[in-house]
Amino acid sequence: MRVLRARRSRMSLARQLFTLQIVLILLLVVTSAVLVFLQVRNDNRTDTEHQVTTLATGLAELPEVKRAVAGEDPAAALQPLAESVRKATDTDFIVFMAPDRTRYSHTDPELIGLRFRGNIDRALAGESFTESYEGTLGPSIRAVVPVTDDRGEVTALVSIGVLQKKIGAELSRRLAPVVPVSAGALILAGAGSWAISRRLDRQTLGLGAEEITRLYEHHDAVLRTVREGLLIVSPRGVLILVNDHARRLLALPEGAEGRPVLDLGLPSPVGPLLTSGSPVTDRLCVHGDRVLVLNQERIERHGRHLGTVTTLRDHTELEALAGELDSARGFAEALRSQAHESANRLHTVVTMIELGRPEEAVEFATVELASAQALADRLTEEVQEPALAALLLGKAAQAAEKGVELEITDDTAVAEAGFAPRDLVTLVGNLVDNAIEAALAAPPPRRVTVTARTEGDSLLVRVSDSGAGLDGAALESMFRRGWTTKQPQGARGQGLGLALVRQVIDRYGGDVEVSGDAGAVFTVRLYRGTAPS
Description:
It is found in: Cell membrane. The protein is α+β, with helices and mostly antiparallel strands. Helices cover 50% and strands 20% of the residues.
């Protein structure tokens, strides 16, 4: 039993279907042939019964027959008549008989005068009937009809019959075309089933039903549990498959499968990438409020392009953390630089004291400390969001290390609550970083000015720099992922900062104004209470 089950499991789905089709076709052909045989046999019997009944009735009504029956020697008159009619009608026997069964005629003249073998009771009662009976010549289908006189009394009987062997021969003749037709139908249907099974075998890669079921179960389980978005797009740009994670990441509607990707309303760059059919490796894409990493590969088999398979990973949190890490790293570098500078100043102060000039030492030490402490005190007092205050202090130190003066305007004042600290760090940090880079790329004096203040239910952030400004043609595209004025550095993609800024602006229903005549000026306004929960 196990061996049989193993063989059955190795049998491909196409072969199983072909076997079932052949069995079904054979059953249908045999059943049809049997039904045709039964129908033809029934029709042949009905025709024979009708023939012998009609002929016997006609003979019984002939005046010659009635006169012969009433004559002195009925046999002498009826035997020649019976034989001539039998030969003309191709029947096997015509028997005239008396009501007491005495034969007046027969195919074998020696049987004339002997008793008729068969049923005649119904005919004696004046009824015509047919029956199957084995007489002296063998099994036959016969009709027995009464011969009546002018008064309606039965004076004789006539029986006409056809032997079963002759009926069988006629049946064989009628059924002769059925055999080749059935064989041809069987061959044609078998050839069609074989062609269909070959095509199905190619389409199912020769897999069996159990293997296909197992693959589907595993396929469905993987699609539901994998923590990456997965999409398969046909060469014509139709979305063939999408798993639940990809549906959530791209906010796809129900019933997206089977629809062209262009009809799903996916904005650039995700939509064009999915329909391009081009291989893509670790491409960062900003989609709505998410940062996605997209990988795409072409599917090819036997030289045929079958479409593309695309995977999506959500890097929103990772990119935000990476931005914060960059800020922390810059802050640490600034602290390291300040520590180094502080050590130099401390040595200077100690040396001046040793030289007997304490007043100059105190003045030298307190001038720089007062300036730095004043900025820290002002930010701590006016900026009630600790993360934003720390960011501004760090960026000031980072800019100073790079030779850029970062000015935080006196009207900077940010009230607490209403905006997520991470969003503020992303917004202000990226704008300031871009401004510092722009200032460094321009000739001295290098300057960056930052303003952040709360105005009612909104937050105003303005960052300007002393750089070369912005090209007017770039204003429309600078917030798209990939736009940058920097030279590529390292493996990490450029052009993501302003795209993340755009996300924060959209999240709070804000707006941005950019001017770029004499250095770039970014003015952003966010509104409290509009961020999604």
